[in-house]
Amino acid sequence: MRLFSIAVYFIFSALLLISCEERRRDTKVLSYIAHSERDSARLDLNLFESRFHGKLFFYRPGGEVDSGDIRGNIQKDTLLGDYYYTPFGWGQKKRRPFVLLKKGSLYILGTGAEQVYMGIPHYIPSTVNFQDPKFIFEKVNH
């Protein structure tokens, strides 16, 4: 009887742990690349319903690379968040605002006037601009 009650307790505990586990969707990393004169950039994105995260690399002549993590919220066709990166030749990481506009299968890197509020950098909404972008990301087919 004691062995039976231990087995039931173990099965019940296992089912409880499985049901409480966070549900994650299997996501596929989408890769994009962009070129601007002698510079290039690579974007690796994980998209969810209302959030995104990924990696962003900027390559400049002479082997200079800025690389870091992006994360933020998806608002309709705009990805708005921040870029936490290590600039080439620096020891400390920096945080900058980040915004992308999805246009068809392309992502356009936006700019704007930066502001820091409570230690979090962001673009002032009325200044976000996608005109004359430096980088337009195209999907990489693997």
TrEMBL record:
Originating species: Sphingobacterium paramultivorum
> What is this protein identified as?
Lipoprotein
